[in-house]
UniProtKB/TrEMBL annotation:
Pfam families per UniProt: MR_MLE_C, MR_MLE_N
Cofactor entry: a divalent metal cation
Classification via NCBIfam families: menC_lowGC_arch
Record keywords, A-Z: Lyase, Magnesium, Metal-binding
Domain Mandelate racemase/muconate lactonizing enzyme C-terminal intervals: 141-233
Root EC class: lyase
Domain of life assignment: Bacteria
EC number: 4.2.1.113
Identification of the protein by name: o-succinylbenzoate synthase
Organism annotation: Kribbella sindirgiensis
Length: 367
């Protein structure tokens, strides 16, 4: 195989419902689509799902554009390859979101040229995956309960709540009281510090499936301390950017659950490696999301079909976030279950007209 054309499309879509986490608030998203073209004419699409601001991870849409256009794409243009892993860039440090878009496009292209579904070439074994929803911080508890009610009514079996200092025990108690049996978990996006350990232990009585990333990404020791003194499993997200990070976290016993994000890990190649490692270590995994458009969402669905993804993934339907998505058909969930596409490559048609209509910047590199 040989990539003869590489294009970036910065696409802006409005969110149907404003999303607030402990660190930021979003009303629309700009993601960068990566389009790779093989000498045979086959096309592979990937998505760089970086936030606009460096609050979840250090990258931004601008930094991703810079890294992809100046380093990642020039490095693969014209180079012969026969497996996506050969295109992994080991020279560029970090910048995992940018790398993830390119890696995913290479996998989608590879699946396309072999006339196989993306899930199949990854080693996926499931034909459907269970989806959970992630709910942002709402202005009031009543508004949160309305959100939970809507998602439970839509059939989603797991709900995750974003929490922060002034929005933790109370919303959790309210949701738990209203839904005694719901698979419920919380995600702090690293807002707490060691001084909050005692406070966080108050969450232990609400039978949460996990507490996701309570402390800062590099603060593995405090995660280990919380895990030693709480019954609720601790889940890591931001802390694990590489498989080597996972090894350290395992050694420290800083987690019982791992959120694997294609974007945060730098693509499907390292995400699959993390899955294999966690499985060997007996750690449950699920696939996290970054409010992906359809292209990144389908990559998440394909990854979630691997056997170790035993907990519901953040692969809810497109309609939860976007009125119209970039793939046809849009990703749908029926009673919280998403079908793994059986068609070649990503498995859904990429809507070029919709991409063009919502593009705010474009770049094309040709061999
Ligand atoms: O920590 O999981 C997170 C969105 C932006 C930044 C961080 C996170 C999230 C989500 C998205 O929770 C959930 C989804 O895409 O369905
Ligand atoms: Mg998270």
């Amino acid at each position: 195989l040989r990539i003869v054309g590489a294009r970036l499309h910065r696409v802006r879509l409005p969110l149907v419902h404003e999303f607030q986490t402990s660190s930021h608030r979003k009303t629309h998203l700009d993601h960068i689509l990566v389009e790779l073209e093989d000498a045979s004419g086959a096309i592979g699409w990937g998505e760089i799902a970086s936030s606009s601001d460096p609050y979840y991870a250090p990258e931004t849409v601008e930094s991703c554009w810079h890294i992809a256009s100046q380093y990642l794409l020039p490095a693969i243009l014209g180079r012969p390859w026969n497996h996506p892993e050969q295109l992994t860039n080991r020279k560029v440090r970090g910048n995992n979101f940018a790398k993830a878009g390119v890696d995913t496009a290479a996998w989608a292209l590879w699946a396309e040229t072999r006339s196989l579904p993306l899930a199949t070439v990854l080693g996926g074994t499931r034909t459907e995956v269970v989806a959970g929803v992630s709910l942002g911080i709402e202005p009031t508890i009543d508004e949160l309960l309305t959100q939970v009610q809507q998602q439970v009514a839509a059939g989603y079996p797991r709900v995750k709540l974003k929490i922060a200092h002034d929005w933790d025990v109370e919303p959790v108690r309210a949701v738990r009281t209203a839904y005694p049996e719901l698979d419920l978990h919380v995600d702090a996006n690293g807002i707490y510090t060691a001084g909050d350990l005692e406070h966080l232990r108050k969450l232990d009585e609400y039978r949460l499936t996990m507490i996701e990333q309570p402390f800062a990404p590099r603060d593995l020791l405090t995660h280990a301390e919380l895990q030693r003194t709480i019954g609720t499993p601790v889940c890591l997200d931001e802390s694990v950017e590489t498989v080597a990070d996972l090894e350290i976290a395992l050694k420290l016993e800083a987690l019982q659950v791992l959120n694997i994000k294609v974007s945060r890990m730098g693509g499907l190649t390292p995400a699959r490696e993390a899955h294999d490692r966690a499985r060997d270590a007996g750690i449950a995994v699920w696939c996290g999301g970054m409010h992906e458009f359809g292209i990144g969402r389908l990559a998440n669905v394909a990854l979630s079909s691997l056997p170790g993804f035993t907990l519901p993934s953040d692969v809810s339907a497109s309609e939860k976030y976007y009125a119209r998505d970039l793939v046809i058909p849009a990703v749908v969930a029926v009673q919280g279950v998403v079908q793994v596409p059986q068609a070649t490559g990503l498995g859904h048609t990429v809507d070029r007209d919709l991409i063009t209509a919502n593009t705010v910047a474009e770049l094309s590199l040709q061999l």
